[in-house]
Amino acid sequence: MTESLPLFPLHTQLLPQQRLDLQIFEPRYLQLVKDCLRADSPFGVVMIREGAEVVHTSADVPQVFGTGVSAKIVDWGTTNTSLLAVTIIGQAKFKLSRANVDASKLMSAEISWLPVEAIVDVPIHHAGLLALLQQLRQHPATARLQLPDITDARHLGWQLSQLLPLPKSLKVDLLSMVDPLQRLDRLLALIEDLSEGR
């Protein structure tokens, strides 16, 4: 079963349960936020393939990947520069089946929800991945991402997928996987390839 969801394209990948701060000034996204606040409804965050988050011409619409995460607005206000500041939290993953663009260049899509991932502990043989993520989380740039605590294999896989120097397409492929242990196996193989220069 599919449903329609407005889209907010970003160069950053949103993860389930991750909080993210956005500053908004474009009329189409101001309207999106207003509509979602009024209806207490989510919007979808998708990562940009090419293009830009800000549209400079009427014909410029970002190309996006086919997997995203729904976002709920949990706080909002204005900045000292009169921008709208919103805090969102990632919720459920989805697949795009058909995207549309309205007259204001706001994107929406027919989406289908991906299965909820099982909550499983990090296996002993993936303890090295956990240590690596803990090191990455100590970097100041990572701290600004407001990543959730690492409580299970889902968070470990999602966060490594986001933080490792991988192509965007591979990051989205890893996010779209529904088995957290298979994701960890794939990440382990990718890290071994990176360490060997392959």
Entry keywords:
alpha+beta, 5-stranded mixed barrel, Archaeosine Trna-guanine Transglycosylase, Chain: A, domain 4, 198 residues, 6 strands
What does the secondary structure layout of this molecule look like, with pairings?
Blueprint: E1 3-10, E2 19-24, H1 27-39, E3 43-50, E4 63-78, E5 84-101, E6 107-113, H2 127-136, H3 140-143, H4 153-163, H5 168-176, H6 180-195
Parallel strand pairs: 1-3
Antiparallel strand pairs: 1-6, 2-5, 3-4, 4-5, 5-6
Helix pairs in contact: 2-4, 4-5, 4-6
Protein model, in words:
- The protein is of the alpha+beta class and about 200 residues long.
- The chain has 2 domains: about 5-115, LON domain-like (Archaeosine Trna-guanine Transglycosylase, Chain: A, domain 4, Roll), CATH 2.30.130.40; about 125-195.
- About 30% of the residues lie in helices and about 30% in strands.
- The protein has a 5-stranded mixed β-barrel.
- The protein is globular and about 50 Å long.
- The mean pLDDT is about 90.
Question: What does the overall shape look like?
Answer: globular
How many alpha or pi helices? 6
- The CATH superfamily of the largest domain turns out to be LON domain-like
Q: Poorly predicted ranges (pLDDT <50, ≥5 residues)?
A: none
Say how many strands there are. Answer: 6
Question: Can you write the helix and strand succession as a string?
Answer: EEHEEEEHHHHH
Q: Determine Rg (CA atoms, Å).
A: 17 Å
**What structural category do the secondary elements indicate?**
alpha+beta
State mean pLDDT (0 to 100 scale). Answer: 89
Major sheet description? 5 strands, mixed, barrel
CATH topology of the largest domain: the name is Archaeosine Trna-guanine Transglycosylase, Chain: A, domain 4
Report strand %. 25-35%
End-to-end distance: 41 Å
The CATH architecture term of the largest domain is Roll
How many domain modules? 2
Helix content: 25-40%
Strand order of the largest sheet: 1-3-4-5-6
CATH class of the largest domain equals Mainly Beta
